[in-house]
Amino acid sequence: MTDRLYPAAWDRDTGPFFTAAREGRLVFCACNACDRGLHVPTPSCRFCGSIDTSWRDARGTGTLYSWTTVTQQAHPAWPVPYTVVIVALDEAPEVRLTGCIPGAPALSAGQPMQVWFEDIGQGRTLPNWRPLQNGDLA
Fold first, then answer.
1. pLDDT along the chain (138 residues), means of 10
2. Model-level pTM greater than 0.85?
């Protein structure tokens, strides 16, 4: 197996995100004062300055905000082509999460997306995204 970077569940800012992913849940950090989503998670709200934040469960759906298809291999762990996506969460559009889709799928801005959880080994799981197909339940 090729070496790769693994998320750190012990990190105080992002650990809860990766711990929830291991449990099959998607979460995001939010400000309890102004009710806005915070990503990248920080100890205080960038919108109102409050330090009253908490982790909230997300439904696991969003809209495709942006994407790019990589065609030149930079590392053996990432065979090409693959498409890096940025997805805005439905319940907190200011929270935009990244994911990776194998190949070069036909995508369009605003396309509905759904989370899935990828086991990347060593007891670690990453939330990832795929297009939501007609008839899929969110």
1. 63 86 95 94 92 96 97 89 97 95 95 95 90 68
2. yes
